[in-house]
Amino acid sequence: MTSIVNLEISSEGTGLAELFESVPSLACEAEAGVVSDGYDLWLSGASKDEIESGLADASTIEDRTLVNGSEEQWLYNVTFAPDAIDLFEVVLEEGGTILDASASGRSWNLNIRVQERSDASSIHTRLEELDLEPTVIRLYDTSDETGSQSGLTQNQYETLVAAINYGYFEIPRDVSMQELSEELGVSHQALSERLRRAYRSLVTSELDVSPEETEPALSSTLSD
Question: Dmax of the chain from CA atoms?
């Protein structure tokens, strides 16, 4: 029975620990469907100069490349040093698939799909052995989940609820994306990207496919 486990994990000791130490206000969200070397991470909560400086000074980060960005957040492809704890690799090794990963306030929040509940236990045990202080927020079978909870972070869930309440999904729309972004106090770009990642989390969870499995179809669509 496929299950989803929502874990909160300390960022201390992970590959981004030094970056969070130097930039305490940093927020991070992993890009779904990573197909390149390293990990694609959206970084925000500080100026670009502060983030660049923190990345450059972090000994746990071997390489980084700026991929994309706006005035408030930037997408970096990050490669961790060999001796750093690679949180994503740990989950993969224990049989989990990360549907969504975000970090702020020096803690990670992960939604992980596992084929058996014993895999969730193995992931938790491994993280404990690495002193990452894992806390299970929620563990549920995919057959029991509701559409509004499928692999979403709290921010994504609250954004979708707000979009529904303000009539963004009505036909015709009662509110534009610009108006919704102003109501939520985020930039138009940040809202667009948050909604896109929320849609992707819902689809990959509901259809029971990994983010990687959706890549060919996505690439084909974008090239049309």
Answer: 53
